[in-house]
Amino acid sequence: MGQNHDLPDVSEATIKDLQRRMSRGETASRELVKAYLDRIARYDKAGPCLNSFLEVNPDAMFIAEAMDLERARRGPRGPLHGIPVVLKDNIDTADKMHTSAGSLALADSFASKDSFVAERLREAGAVILGKSNMTEWANFMTQGMPNGYSSRGGQVLNPYGPGRLDVGGSSSGSGAAVAASLVAAGVGTETHGSILSPSASNGLVGVKPTVGLISRSGVIPISPVQDTPGPMTRCVEDAAILLGALAGPDERDPATWRSEGFYHKDYTRFLDRDGLKGKRIGIPRDDYGRLDKERAALVEAAEEALKDLGATVVDMSSDRPKGWASRSLTYEFKPAINAYLSGLAPHVPVHSLKELIEFNRQRPYEMLRYGQTTFLAAEATSGTLTEPEYIRLRAEDDRLSREEGIDYLLGKYDLDALVYPGIGCTTLSAKSGYPAITVPVGVTSDFRPVAITFTSKAWSEPLLLAMAYALEEATPFRKPPALD
Which residues are catalytic? Predict the structure, then answer.
């Protein structure tokens, strides 16, 4: 299927690019929606068959036309006015689209109310173009499920190497769709690496915010302690725009109540080409040894760029937090998912984790290709969070990730931030609830994206965005996938 040359070229277009074209009358939101749908037809459902979209919003064109009329009459609401975005399929939208977490068990489930994320996007004038495929149940169903696989949607492919490269999980569809310019920007969710992983794997900027900066209400949960939505974009500025639209307190999510005084409506004001000047950054240089020679060279080049841009790099290899494994999520999942499922419509076949497990057992060929070991372990807990082991594990998570983790390293070496090759800080940032931003630093000779990840203390998104922006502006490492 060839490109429709009457449509605008949206490949690699930033939010600012698209907004500028609409403001000049060169195109309209309706035309952007048509252009992205054309790319979905050519690359997602044909060609490389990336399989990143589970469904397209049947009202997208009408919403876009309404935004065009509003722009003509009153001007744009802001930088997201008329911009098409995609939401991960575990984020509720009260419209004609389903919210299923990629599972056939919820294939007919419609949310009765918008999530806070969807509300904010609609208020900003964004066009929710569709729902993205994902690793089923945010990869909390079993061990060994491939990243990007779901019973409802099948396998998402990485646009940099369809069928060859790991697409990352669990916000896999959002990652692939944004990387392939099937949409302007995306929203993923993270409990433990599910924004950072697909962003790094698909050459994107991914922001895992401080837990509580963006509301989780209306998001199918895993953990009330670690869950957070976050932006997935092709550049830092787009991530800052999306973050500003989504951040802020929500009466339905107590974690956000503490964001007062810390959130910002406009994060683009923190973007600074000199954002690395005078900063002290800690890097565990011994992590380079875990990379092959080519990827290590790209990370080393990024480290040199940090220095050239005025940062002092401190090697903290000799004093790193110890690694640890924790089952705290296993305890937190049952009460969280039971609360969500209990509120679904009567026609939905499951309203508890126990019913979900039984639904899967009755359909082993469709539902249990990789088993449901994690579900079974979670169901075996009390669901009350009263187990002494859980209380001990959660306290240990806090201590090892904060007092003996990120806070310890920042304090001991007088650092502004930590930088890890790939997504090496995933456990620390996830367990602490602190923010992290992954940034592309190039691709290998076989076109495998390589990234580094910045992390720091709670509510440090302005600092992390400034540093990531300075690196991106000085060194345009990102290369788009060669879809044709």
Answer: 88, 170, 194
Determine the pLDDT at residue 2: 58
Distance CA 447, CA 480 (A): 10
Query: Helix H segments across 75-142?
Result: 116-123
The verdict on pTM exceeding 0.85 is yes
Q: Residues 6 or more apart from 353 whose CB is under 8 A from it? A: 333, 334, 337, 338, 341, 375, 378, 379
Residue 401 CA to its chain's centroid (Å): 21
Greatest Cα-to-Cα distance within the chain, rounded to the nearest angstrom: 64
275 assigned to some structural domain: no
Residue 3 is predicted with a pLDDT of: 62
Q: For residues 357 and 109, give the distance between their C-alpha atoms in angstroms, rounded to a whole number.
A: 17
Write phi, then psi, for 452 (nearest 5 degrees): -125, 160
Distance CA 316, CA 333 (A): 35
CB count in 10 Å sphere of residue 368: 15
Cβ-proximal residues to 180 (8 Å cutoff; 6+ apart), any chain: 39, 43, 44, 50, 52, 159, 481, 483
Tell me whether residue 156 is in a domain.
yes
10: tokens are 């949206």
Q: Give me the amino acid identity at 470.
A: A
Q: Tell me the per-residue pLDDT of 77-93, one tens digit each, with 9 for 90 and over.
A: 999 999 999 999 999 99
Pair (147, 208) in one structural domain:
yes
Clarify whether residues 360 and 214 are in a common domain. no
Residue 82 contacts residue 127 (beta carbons within 8 Å): yes
> What is the CATH classification number for the domain harbouring 213?
3.90.1300.10
* pLDDT at res. 320: 77
**Is 341 part of a structural domain of the chain?**
yes
DSSP characters over 234-260: SSHHHHHHHHHHHBS-BTTBGGGGGGT
Spatial CB neighbours of 169, under 8 Å, sequence gap ≥ 6: 134, 135, 139, 147, 148, 193, 194, 197, 198
The last residue of one of the domains, among 204, 238, 270, is 270
- The answer to whether residues 249 and 293 belong to one domain is no
List the domain range (segments joined by +) for residue 258: 15-270
